[in-house]
């Protein structure tokens, strides 16, 4: 029921901005990357829904709460309770609202041409779901271009927004 409600929220979001998305899942142990397509829904002030593979896989930021559904497994966390997502939440909220990216010890910002790259390397807990996040933003349009969430080893999940 919860998955259905989250899917409906993604589809029925009002005053939204939508983009198409291509998701690439790379696992070192698997020979071929898994590539799926879907959509990105953005609603101000801080709601993002990335839905791929016919809404089977979702990454949702609703305020400070993050819900990730991948491979039939759902993970829920809150940026107030999980420091790994605190900086990530602050950066995404700033990008959505066209505000300057906040400064933090966990992130570096590099601008080259019309692209700003934000790299977040969370510190703290040893066992983390992701080792780093890399987000690229078009500086002219303030649109998200890519999001890469690096896992342990060479594993990663990358989203390309169009």
SSE layout and pairing:
Blueprint: H1 2-12, E1 16-26, E2 34-43, E3 47-52, E4 57-62, E5 65-70, E6 73-78, H2 83-96, E7 107-112, E8 115-120, E9 132-138, E10 144-150, E11 156-161
Antiparallel strand pairs: 1-2, 1-11, 2-3, 3-4, 4-5, 5-6, 7-8, 8-9, 9-10, 10-11
Instruction: List low-confidence stretches.
Output: 1-15
Average per-residue pLDDT, rounded, comes to 85
The helix count comes to: 2
Strand content: over 45%
Structural class: alpha+beta
- Oligomer category: single chain
Helix content: 10-25%
Order of helices and strands: HEEEEEEHEEEEE
Shape: globular
* Spatial separation of the terminal alpha carbons: 30 Å
**Beta strands, count:** 11
Strand order of the largest sheet: 6-5-4-3-2-1-11-10-9-8-7
Radius of gyration, taken over Cα atoms and rounded to an integer in Å: 15 Å
Largest sheet: 11 strands, antiparallel
Describe the 3D structure:
The protein is an alpha+beta fold. 15% of the residues lie in helices and 48% in strands. It contains two helices and eleven strands. It has helices at 2-12, 83-96, and strands at residues 16-26, 34-43, 47-52, 57-62, 65-70, 73-78, 107-112, 115-120, 132-138, 144-150, 156-161. It has an eleven-stranded antiparallel β-sheet with strand order 6-5-4-3-2-1-11-10-9-8-7, sandwiched between helices. The longest helix has 14 residues, at 83-96. It is globular. The protein starts with a helix and ends with a strand. Mean pLDDT is 85; it is low at 1-15.
């Amino acid at each position: 029921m919860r998955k259905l409600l989250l899917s409906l929220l993604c589809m029925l979001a009002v005053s939204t901005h939508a983009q198409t998305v291509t998701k690439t899942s790379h696992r070192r142990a698997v020979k071929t990357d898994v590539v799926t397509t879907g959509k990105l829904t953005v609603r101000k002030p801080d709601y993002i829904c990335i839905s791929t593979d016919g809404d089977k896989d979702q990454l949702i930021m609703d305020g400070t709460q993050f819900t990730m559904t991948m491979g039939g497994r759902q993970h829920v966390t809150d940026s107030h309770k999980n420091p790994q997502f605190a900086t990530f939440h602050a950066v995404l909220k700033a990008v959505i609202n066209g505000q300057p990216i906040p400064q933090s010890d966990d992130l570096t910002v590099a601008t080259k041409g019309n692209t700003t790259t934000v790299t977040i390397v969370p510190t703290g807990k040893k066992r983390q779901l992701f080792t780093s996040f890399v987000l690229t933003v078009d500086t002219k349009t303030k649109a998200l271009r890519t999001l890469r969430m690096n896992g342990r080893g060479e594993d990663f999940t990358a989203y390309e927004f169009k």
